[in-house]
Amino acid sequence: MRWMGFTAAAAAFFVLGAVATSGTARADGDATAGQVIFKKCALCHSPDTGVNKIGPSLHGIVGRHSASIANFNYSPAMKAFDKTWDAAQLDTYLTDPKSVVPGTKMIFPGLKEEKDRQDVIAYLSTLK
């Protein structure tokens, strides 16, 4: 059986791939540009593993559970947040941190431009 010139198996692969990715956000940004934008974050956050500043290290943040660095004193609000930092969650949080986690200690107002957020998320995705 063929669908638009594809075998049934190939068509199913394309359909399942579209369904699997339709509900997930991913960092479509430019990691190099994100590294430059990250300078706004670097006053409080380090990209290096194990190096905490005013905020926790962001090394390995993508895929990590919130408030999970053992040697960092998170706010009660962040401890209660209970999320995994994937691209979609980071995008939401970086838009307006204080509205996403009311009571957070983070004073950063957020990145209002979607491109800036995607670039930073792409950069954070490289920190492994």
From TrEMBL:
Query: Where does the secretion signal sit in this chain?
Result: 1-27
Q: Which InterPro entries match?
A: Cyt_c-like_dom, Cyt_c-like_dom_sf, Cyt_c_1A/1B
- Is-annotated flag, keyword tRNA-binding? no
Residues covered by the Cytochrome c domain: 29-128
This chain's source organism reads Aliidongia dinghuensis
A single Gene Ontology MF term assigned here is:
heme binding
Query: What name goes with this protein?
Result: Cytochrome C protein
Q: Name a Pfam family for this protein.
A: Cytochrom_C
- Keywords, A to Z? Electron transport, Heme, Iron, Metal-binding, Signal, Transport
- Asked whether the UniProt record includes Transport among its keywords, one would answer yes
